[in-house]
Amino acid sequence: MGGSKRAKTNLHKMTRFIQKDLRQKIIEDLRDFRISSEQDLRFSITFHLRKELKLNPANSKYRLATGLRVRRQSRGKPSKKEVDVVIQYLPTKNFGTYLPKIMIEIKEKIRFSKGALMEDVMKLRKFRRQWKKSFGI
Q1: How many whole angstroms separate alpha carbon 65 and alpha carbon 86?
Q2: How crowded is residue 72: how many other Cβ atoms within 10 Å of its Cβ?
Q3: Which residue from 1, 12, 36, 81 could staple onto 70, CB 3.0 to 4.6 Å apart?
Q4: Distance CA 30, CA 69 (A)
């Protein structure tokens, strides 16, 4: 199997796991009182992704990142634009930058608002556009 076909198969497996199995694992963690904040939820997601998908940069072209910043931090100003969990892909050994393939944004809210959802969607779109512009993808 070629490199790009293998990458697409792996990406499909990751997407299927996130859409189906990850939700149940998070619910189990909630029932076992392992999650009490957004940081705990982020940790739970990364733990299950690493465990199930075996994302290890030493033997995989995929890498799991948390708290990936959308923009560089301006001098003297803290950057609050970050994506909670990102699965990145390294296309070739010569291409030294990982590209975001799957982005997960986490919210710890009791009430769900359409405005907050649209803000997160716009943030993810902006992040994706910046990567396309920077690397011509």
Answers
A1: 5
A2: 7
A3: 81
A4: 27
